[in-house]
Design brief:
Number of strands: 16
Structural class: mainly beta
Helix content: 10-25%
Number of helices: 1
CATH topology: Porin
Oligomer: single chain
């Protein structure tokens, strides 16, 4: 009888631990909710910038003198590439055309004197045609969260990249259409929902509506012609 009770007790403990571990694995996010940006650079061109990449898919983190260095880490399809620059930039002044390089790949980083309107231009990523990047400046009290996903026709056909980053209530992203054109994604976030638009070079803009639950997002879009699309993905940074 004692042996049976002991066995039941051991099995009960194992089941409890297994359930707890499974619950922890599913409930706990692997992403930080704490910004890495330094307060003294909140209103400067210096600081931390995070964003998303399409032309395949991925994320980017740019460090402009946050720790007295300048570098960028571009993650494409799960693989990291580090970009560096030998050019100089000055705290509190406009940064225009600061070129980051990795072998034959490169891009130019631009931002206003106070960190406003950061953007990436002259993008050349070897092996990735029509590459585009959208970034936001992280604040010491406001983290930039980056999400990567896929959009498609309502039946799941014609999949294409659909990525965005969120800073506070502002959503900025980039997507591709069937012709591999880059589309600007702009929106507003309220609690766990977001609404916005996707700009199409052909003029067939679409409105989007989605939800974010945990680390995952999903939603729908409809363009001016009445065509319907779906999208989904998850947080990547």
């Amino acid at each position: 009888m004692k042996t049976i009770l002991k066995t039941i007790l051991v099995l009960t403990i194992i089941c409890t631990l297994t359930f707890s571990c499974s619950k922890d694995d599913s409930d706990e996010s692997k992403f930080t909710e704490t910004p890495t940006a330094i307060k003294k650079f909140d209103q400067s061109n210096f600081g931390t910038y995070k964003g998303v990449f399409v032309g395949s898919t991925g994320t980017i983190v740019i460090n402009l003198n946050e720790d007295n260095t300048k570098s960028a880490v571009l993650t494409i399809d799960g693989k990291e590439y580090t970009y560096t620059t030998t050019e100089t930039s000055t705290n509190g002044q406009v940064t225009n055309g600061l070129t980051f390089k990795n072998g034959n790949s490169s891009f130019d980083f631009n931002v206003g004197a106070s960190g406003e309107e950061p953007n990436i231009t002259n993008i050349t990523i070897v092996g990735h045609l029509n590459a585009s990047i959208e970034i936001q400046k992280e604040q010491s009290d406001k983290i930039v969260k980056c999400y990567v996903g896929v959009s498609s026709d309502s039946d799941g056909s014609n999949p294409a990249a659909f990525n965005f980053c969120i800073l506070g209530n502002n959503l900025v992203g980039i997507a591709h259409n069937d012709d591999n054109d880059a589309l600007m994604v702009l929106g507003l976030v309220s609690n766990n929902t977001f609404t916005g638009t996707v700009g199409d070079p052909a003029g067939s803009d679409a409105t989007i509506k989605g939800t974010i639950v945990g680390e995952k997002f999903e939603g729908t879009a409809v363009n001016n012609a009445g065509d319907h699309f779906i999208f989904s993905g998850k947080r990547a940074l």
